[in-house]
Amino acid sequence: MSRRNRKDRRERGEREVIPQRADELTAEWFTQILATGATVAEVRCEEIGVGVGFMGEVHRCHLTWEPLGGVGDAAALPASVIVKTPTQIPENFAVGDALRSYEREIVVYQKLRTTLGVPMPGYYHGAMDPDPAPWMQRPLFFLFDHLSIRGINWVISQFLKLSGKSKRRYVLVIEDFADARPPTQMLGGSLDDARRSLEVLAQFHAANWMRSDATQHYRHIFPVDTVPGVGQASYVRNRDEFVERFGPMLGEGMLERLDAIQERVPEICSSLAAEPWTLLHGDYRLDNVLFRPNGEIVVLDFQGLGSGRPAVDVAYFITTALTAEHRHEEEALLQSYHDALVAAGVSSYSFDELVCDGELAKELLAHRIVGSADVLDTSVAAASDTFMDVIQLRVLDWLN
Question: Coil, helix or strand for 25?
């Protein structure tokens, strides 16, 4: 829907249609928002990515168009599109809403997509309700920077209760690549998939190296060292539950090492936010890349866009995509990434810096794994081999 149409609706006192469930993705709505001049006759939706995403639902919507009658180009009408809506799990929605994950991705597609230097799906439509409290970020960050860990945990609990009551709606409609091969995160990727994905990541980082204008387009692109006390508070809140669940599977000395990292979190975050920095994808893993038959790799899911040293993305990708059995291949993968970064024009970040930062990033990621337990209800937590279990243990194996 155009901005003018939205303005007309507001002036008439009408509420914009922002579907949140599959049954609300109607032919009439698609006809309106795609604005091709043709009419969608029928919609068939299927949910994809079940069990590997926590913040939202992803639907592939197959569109049947009414005959054009010789007017227009039928080949230009999409046979299917991807629609992203928030999760229906209240606890997860509260987190996604509070972190501005849904809002951030919509703004990325609306304002930054053509400037990020990485293949992304085409953008059709994005809509969200206005932010009911745009003033809240500054006082919250002030509290997080000055309260004790106990005080931070109290504020977080109250804030998530408020976010859980939010009625804010979000929807994003993007291009579907039906011909693409999605790697399987649970099984781990091949070394070739990992190498090619890291080369694309290097191109993204190089295109956004020390890019200071991004926050002019969207102010909620946060550096790695933003309110580190929140991570420390989350670790304290979840440590006992983590030990109870994974204790027998933790390697010798692992818990002591995690506790030592807890004390160093502000220092680690500060190091990983220092110059030279770049924009970070924030969730660069195998489930968020698509391999097309023409050799192109398309990058998905920009809900976590932030900034920091590039090793944060690199370490996250390697430790979640590959098992620690591939440890002997890590140097070669890092070299492939660094070669691609240099080839793209970055000369201010040495290979030795990448390796050193990568070790810090692994520590920070392992620490965050412990702290995330109570804010991600996958609704299948009782299963012994859930996606999160596999990823958590894979990350910890890399830390050993």
Answer: coil
